[in-house]
Amino acid sequence: MNPVVTITGASGGIGGRVARRLAAAGVAQRLVARNPAALPALPGATRVVGAAYSDVVGMRAALVGTEVLLLVSARESADRVREHRTAIDAAIAEGVHRIVYLSFLGAAADCTFTFGRDHWHTEEYLRATGVRFVALRDSLYSSALPAMTGADGVLRGPAGGGRVSVVSPDDVADVAVAALLDPAYDGQVLDVTGPEAITLAEAAAHLTRVTGRPVSYQPETEAEAYASRSGYGAPEFEVAGWVTSYQAIATGELAVVSDAVRRATGHAPQAFGDFLDANPNTWAHLRV
What we know:
Layout: E1 5-8, H1 13-24, E2 29-32, E3 45-48, H2 56-62, E4 68-71, H3 80-93, E5 98-104, H4 114-129, E6 132-138, H5 144-147, E7 154-157, E8 163-164, H6 169-181, E9 189-192, E10 198-199, H7 200-211, E11 216-219, H8 222-228, H9 236-251, H10 260-265, H11 272-278
Parallel strand pairs: 1-2, 1-4, 2-3, 4-5, 5-6, 6-9, 7-11
Antiparallel strand pairs: 8-10
Helix pairs in contact: 1-6, 2-3, 3-4, 7-11
Domain NAD(P)-binding: 9-183
InterPro entries: Ergot_Alk_Oxidoreductase, NAD(P)-bd_dom, NAD(P)-bd_dom_sf
């Protein structure tokens, strides 16, 4: 018998993919999202009234009967670590046995990517509680690079000539399913990456090929990066996260290439070029 699994963020890109895979495998699951109306209708799945991670009472109600939890990291905020801790506390109070947490590649207390520090603090909190958990340190999603490219066909940022091992969201979902259903992964921290680490100039070349228009990478200094993003009206912590994600590429912190996808799923991870071929919607804004 498979355990009852609860998927947070089940209306999102990763949570939704995991939910569909579990439904196809006949796994009983509870789907949680802030907006329950956005949740997919899947066989064997119960859609739960939405609850924010910071809502202890709501989270406990959402997790009733849960044995295994996929904790998709909360949207970036100044209080994200506190939100994660509250959700973890609610899960443990409801008797959740195992937690699979979506972390980020290179997570560390002092990593360059500021949001990566939130993931490290969350992992440390999980470890301190004593609950059985798996941390999936996903690399930057392959879909992020076309999204970061402007409609003018320029990918800008202070990444220098650094490399990033972008990973397909489908591969992340496949690994998450394996970790949810197999307790042999408990206690592991898995780097979930694509098959190679590419520069942003190489990413631009791939985008040029699929779009049929020139796409280029334009390196920026740190000052230029902050200045070019100052007009979005985003809070300082969010802008810092945007800029430092590129800087983490420059430092080499996101160049790690692992075999976690192949080991967990039995298939090779998808290369960036193949991802673009299979997902033209991700670069539709770049069509001439």
